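Journal club side-thread
Mid-discussion, someone asked how the predicted structure for our own chain would compare to the paper's figures. Pasting it here so we can look after the session.
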Amino acid sequence: MEYTEALKTIGQLVQKGRLELTLAQQPFAKQAEVDLKTLRSLEKGERAPWDTTQNKVEKALGWRQGVIREVLDHHEIIPAESITMDYMRDGGGEASWADLSAEEEDNTRPVTRAGLLTNEELIGELAYRLRHKNRGIAGAFLP
């Protein structure tokens, strides 16, 4: 599959996912916290969005984390017909954003793919790790 075909396929699936949520472009863009022009460009398959935008769209649609980047990076080996809504949500057994949210609530496992986090999420993760690191060090010196 060509790169432009992969972009168009992703755009069509973003639009389909948005319509499944019964949202027009503007409310969806607001919910996903992305610019409306960026969403329109993504749905038309005109250009690939930045990683943070991809993450926000994936999360809003309930897709697996990093699936847009996966499709774009491996467009040459992924058959076009295999890129479906099911693939975007469940394919490959990767963790979805819902899985990550459950982990976040659990707080038992740290996030392992920092490149998929927004700046705010990354800062929160670093703050969490620093707090727990300091507790561990202080706890080691207690009698």
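Post-session note: The mean pLDDT is 78.
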